[in-house]
Amino acid sequence: MEHKNHIEKRIERKAEYYVTKAIKIFFMIILAILFFLLFGYVVMWLWNWLMPDLFGLATITYWQAFGLLVLSKIFFGFGSGGPGKSGSGRRKSKRRFSSEKCGPMRRDFSEWKLYDRFWKEEGEQAFKAYVDRTRENERKDSEA
Fold first, then answer.
1. How many CB atoms lie within 10 A of CB 99?
2. Residue 39 CA: distances (Å) to CA of 29, 33, 35, 63, 65
3. 3-state helix, strand, coil in the chain (%, to 5)
4. pLDDT tens for residues 43-69?
5. How many CB atoms lie within 10 A of CB 140?
6. Regions in the chain scoring below 70 on pLDDT
C-alpha cells in the first residue's frame, strides 16, 4: 500500500510540475504579445512626435506603426544575438577578424612620428596646390 502512495505522489508532483510549466508558458506568450502590441504604440508615438517635425512626413495610425514594426522585424531580424545564441559562431568570426586586423593597410606605427613634420613641410603646400588645381578646373568647366 505504501508503494502505491509513493507512486501516486510522484505522479501528482509530475502533473503539478507540468501544469505550472504550461501556465508559465501561456502567460509568457500572452506577455510577449502584449509587449509587442505596446511596442507598436511606442513606435506610433515616436513617429508622430519626431517625423513630422524633422522630415515633414505625415502622422501615422496605430496599425500603420504596427505594420512598420512587423516590416522592420522581417527586414532586420528578430534579435537572435542574445545569450541563447551558440558561442561558436561568434568565436569563429572573432578569430577571423582578429587575424585580418587592418589587412594589407597595416603599417609600422613608427612612420606616424614623421607625419607632423611631413604635414608642416610638404602637406600644406601640396594641399594648397590641390585646391588651386581644383578651382582652376572648375573655372575651366564653367567657361566651357
1. 8
2. 15, 10, 6, 12, 9
3. 85, 0, 15
4. 999 999 999 988 889 999 999 999 998
5. 9
6. 1, 80-110, 112
